[in-house]
């Protein structure tokens, strides 16, 4: 049988790089594409020596040309953490809109199946709990987070339109907070922020009173869910995440226990439009894909903490990326 070929956009990022690993392991030829705006080549440098792996340094908001057949496209390119997309709002809207359009055009031309990385942020600050795929969300389009949330909502719409109008095979995964090795320490998300603060010997910063909740999924579980969804025949959105919910205050306490830091927790004002609660209803993933998360938080956090501890010490003090030249 001929080898299948998969294109993964956002390949040098946190999730994209884990997907590259998984598809290589499954015996696919993998083409990684990334413009490195928030990604890091170090996440995939171990793949460069492999004959099954190719890398295109390319911005997916520009026309995409890949010679030869493609069986699957996984569109994961997009700034993903608030600290990034608040600094590059236009780029974020463009990659969700133009980038998705370009990938869908390529999928149509190559007769490839395409899976897009949507997000629990399409539910905004949800009025329904836990969030089912049928809930339409509560998003402020003109708030600071709107650039990300609405880009992803547009992405879902255009993906469904290519499915119904052009007959392209499409899959939509709504990803809830995921963590694991290769996250960036300074990307502003709660987990790396807490671990970074603990490793630097700083107090842990909790926003608001810390009663807002999140549900954290370990990256290997997420990748398994995505892999199963891609190979399924279901074109509507599917939540993939870990339904075990925790308040950010309790989470900060867990990190203190894990790292053994003697620092305390300090409180800062809640960012605008910060969602109060997040918890996926994963009935669909369970029934359609036979999927549920297997890695509990204690195990996943230990692996992630060991990864952050293994980084060179100067990584701990790196400032967040600046994007001055990007429009
Ligand atoms: P990341 O920032 O680590 O990876 C994103 C990658 O996309 C980076 O390597 C970046 O350089 C690349 N990229 C951005 N714009 C690009 C462009 N125009 N052209 C080519 N490459 C571009 O983020 P991540 O956490 O790995 O997220 C990956 C995807 O998953 C994103 O689409 C994100 O919205 C989605 N997602 C992630 C989470 C999560 O918890 N990590 C949750 C929901 C959705």
Kindly report the average pLDDT value: 95
Q: Under CATH, the topology of one domain is which?
A: Rossmann fold
Structural class: alpha/beta
Total strand segments: 13
Supply the CATH superfamily name of one domain: NAD(P)-binding Rossmann-like Domain
The amount of helix comes to 25-40%
Strand content: 15-25%
Strand order of the largest sheet: 3-2-1-4-5-6-11
Question: So, CATH architecture of one domain?
Answer: 3-Layer(aba) Sandwich
Cα(first) to Cα(last) distance is: 45 Å
Radius of gyration: 19 Å
The number of helical elements comes to 9
Please outline what is shown here:
The protein is an alpha/beta fold. It has helices at 14-25, 82-85, 89-110, 146-166, 190-200, 219-231, 248-259, 283-289, 297-310, and strands at 5-9, 29-34, 53-57, 72-75, 113-119, 170-175, 178-179, 204-207, 213-215, 217-218, 238-240, 245-247, 265-268.
Task: Explain what the structure shows.
The radius of gyration is 19 Å and the shape is globular. Helices cover 35% and strands 17% of the residues. The longest helix has 22 residues, at 89-110. The chain starts with a strand and ends in a 17-residue tail after the last helix. It has a domain at 5-179 and 218-242 and 279-294: Rossmann fold. Helix 3 (89-110) packs parallel to helix 4 and helix 5 runs parallel beside helix 7. It contains 9 helices and 13 strands. It has helices at 14-25, 82-85, 89-110, 146-166, 190-200, 219-231, 248-259, 283-289, 297-310, and strands spanning 5-9, 29-34, 53-57, 72-75, 113-119, 170-175, 178-179, 204-207, 213-215, 217-218, 238-240, 245-247, 265-268. Nicotinamide-adenine-dinucleotide binds next to helix 1, helix 3 and strand 5.
């Amino acid at each position: 049988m001929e080898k299948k070929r998969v294109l993964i956009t956002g390949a040098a990022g946190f999730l994209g790089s884990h997907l590259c690993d998984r598809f290589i392991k499954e015996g696919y030829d993998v083409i990684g594409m990334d413009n490195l705006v928030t990604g890091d080549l170090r996440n995939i440098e171990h793949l460069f020596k492999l004959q099954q792996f190719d890398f295109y340094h390319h911005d997916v908001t520009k026309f995409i040309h890949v010679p030869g057949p493609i069986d699957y496209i996984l569109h994961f390119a997009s700034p993903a953490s608030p600290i990034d997309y608040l600094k590059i709002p236009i780029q974020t809207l463009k990659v969700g809109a133009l980038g998705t359009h370009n990938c869908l055009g390529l999928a149509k031309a190559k007769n490839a199946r395409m899976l897009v990385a949507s997000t629990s942020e399409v539910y905004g600050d949800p009025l329904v709990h836990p969030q089912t795929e049928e809930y339409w969300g509560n998003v402020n389009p003109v708030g600071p987070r709107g650039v990300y949330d609405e880009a992803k909502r547009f992405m879902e719409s255009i993906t469904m339109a290519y499915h119904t109008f052009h007959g392209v095979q499409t899959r939509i995964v709504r990803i809830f907070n995921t963590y694991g090795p290769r996250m960036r320490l300074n990307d502003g998300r709660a987990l790396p922020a807490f671990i970074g603060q603990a490793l630097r010997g700083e107090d842990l910063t909790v926003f608001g009173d810390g009663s807002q909740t999140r549900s954290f999924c370990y990256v290997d579980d997420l990748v398994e869910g995505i892999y199963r969804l891609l190979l399924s025949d279901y074109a509507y959105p599917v939540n993939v995440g870990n339904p075990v919910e925790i308040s950010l205050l309790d989470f900060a306490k867990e990190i203190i226990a894990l790292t053994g830091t003697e620092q305390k927790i300090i409180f800062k004002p809640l960012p605008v439009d910060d969602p109060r609660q997040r918890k996926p209803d994963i009935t669909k993933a369970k029934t359609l894909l036979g999927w549920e998360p297997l890695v509990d938080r204690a195990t996943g956090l230990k692996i992630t903490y060991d990864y952050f501890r293994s980084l060179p010490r100067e990584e701990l003090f790196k400032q967040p990326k600046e994007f001055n030249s990007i429009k």
